[in-house]
């Protein structure tokens, strides 16, 4: 299959102690941490394209512009939807939304590039 604009996926997770601001060092409260939300958003973008990537390729994230709109409590369910909105050669652009039972908690615009993992790792 090919990567086409409009691909989307939705994933859910439950906020645990390992997802909290106090655990990540990004605050002192047991609420869903911004770094955890960003990681879940990026993971959802990867899941969106994974099955349609050409064999022998991978993708790397190079930009994420995120807004964390609302706190989410420990034990809550977070739902994240990523949509591939633009394919420009190897450049992939996503719109991502996260929500909990109370509604929207965050939004992001995320850019990934398709890479050859062997060449990529050989340059490090």
UniProtKB/TrEMBL annotation:
InterPro entries for this protein: FlK, FlK-like_dom, HotDog_dom_sf
SUPFAM superfamilies linked: Thioesterase/thiol ester dehydrase-isomerase
Pfam families associated with the record: FlK
Highest taxon listed in the record's lineage: Bacteria
Start and end residues of each Fluoroacetyl-CoA-specific thioesterase-like domain: 15-116
The protein, known as: Thioesterase family protein
